[in-house]
Amino acid sequence: MLRFSCLVFSRGAARRFASSFSSDTALPPNLRLPSNLVDPDRLKRPPPSEDSSLPLIRKCDAALPAHLSPVRTWVDTLESKDSEPLGLTELHPDVFAVTPRFKLIFSHASTKVRSEVRGGGRKPWNQKGSGRARHGSIRSPLWRGGGVSHGPRGPKSYYYMLPMKVRVQGLKVALSSKMAQQYLHVVDSLNIPTPDSQYLLELIRSRHWGESVLLVDVSEEFPENILQATENLKTVNLIPAIGLNVHSMLKHEAVILTLDTVRFLEEKLLWHDERYTFLYPLKLPYSDFP
Amino acid sequence: MSFPKKPGGKALDVLQNLPRITLTNLRPEPGARKNEKRRGRGQHGGNRSGRGHKGERQRGTRPRLGFEGGQTPFYLRIPKYGFNEGHSRRPQYQPLTLKRLQYLIDLGRVDPTQPIDLTQLINARGLTIQPLKRDYGVQLVDEGSDIFVAKINIEVQRATEGAIAAIERNGGVITNSFYDPISLGILIKPVPFFMRGQPIPKRMLPGEDMVPYYMSAENRGYLADPEEIQQARRALAQKYGYVLPDISKDELCHMLAMRKDVRQIFFGLSPGWVINMPEKKILKPTDQKLLQYYSS
User: Fold this and answer.
1) Where does the pLDDT of residue A135 fall: very low under 50, low under 70, confident under 90, or very high at 90 and above?
2) Which of B9, B19, B191 sits opposite A96 (nearest CB)?
């Protein structure tokens, strides 16, 4: 009887076990998504297939490991509103895992200890004889209006820096998740014909990039036209590549990189994978680092 | 392995169908954040707050560690003996196995065509030395002596007989030299020292108890007589049963014969020189007294 019930239980458990491995891309059946969540026009252009006629503008600089293949994307121009993509680029395959976290800063919470509360030096009533409980001062933590025994003291800083490799990994993860959900676009350069914000907005709307766009270039000097165009726009922002961070990438819907930025990012982010540990702070000169 | 793995794996495929990742969608992975234990709050942390029931345990008046209620405690019954006496004055040497050395040479992290120094080993991240923890350098241990096949000119602070035999069997040269703690700190991290702008100090000679070690030829000390070292090499070859290869007929003979001067810390740099890192210049002293001091 016991053996029979054990058999029944194990079969049920095996069925439940198998269902979690049934299919990898199927969403759970009880998940309900609103219908206007996804803009259908955005996903009209699939990623480039193997046999496309456009030229391959840029190959990966760094050496790729043998078991991985590079990711291909379209390269666009910002010159005119409706133009066909110029060509293809290859991006280095990025790694996947962790959810990003952020640096925090200050908390100003502070309370007064019994010594700092105003008043309370005198003994309220005699130690003995009055019939009431014994007290030393009117500002002890037991009393109403008294000091707090172990409260927060003074401004306390919650500042912390994540390790360097964790920060690098966070950037790689953010870039690859944008890539996977097709919010990452590559452009050859940030030159626009007119310094008009309307032109930019119409361009973005026609290409279905999204509501907010982050434009990333390598150098800190941007062309005049794009500077003027984005000056008064709240949703379209420019940053140099050194200022790229996960927070900005997640806040803006689409991220636009130039070809130079892609090269810069690949070089900088991949260096951390194969470097020695630092013997002394990076500010001092290193001559033999690869 | 015939199938090339797709970069990113299945997680990226799943992401394509899920809504956009935003600042509002993030969550730490299950098990990443564990709740802090808070005493005196709630059903499990409150009531007696993990202190037990009455007595010295709850009231926090337990006696000091080791107290046995008045009986002479264990740590006072046992008489003192100098096991650890002077432990902070005993020199320690970080062991380096021949196996690890061979591994570093094979991976190309250490260059066998140049004299191998402690700086080279540290630059290759082969080992870590802490001069502030009474480390006086590195000692060569003969753990991988049967695998070792590299002809090198190596300089360590201590070496076992088996390690010396293994290196000389392959046609290499080994020297034991002494570095006082300040010189060791400079040797390990030369760049921070050069940024300080101080002249390179001269290396001090070993103390009384270490002089016999560094003057004996069996240990290949740097203060020993070269002829005695040759005799010791032949004796060791006979003891371990290998033919002693002739170094003078080697192409790298010049490199293998390179040795540091007794007072020198770096190859090519003498004591007394000041290095200017930003402008890449070397300043040498000209005063007679200084030259006399540094060349003594």
Assistant:
1) confident
2) B9
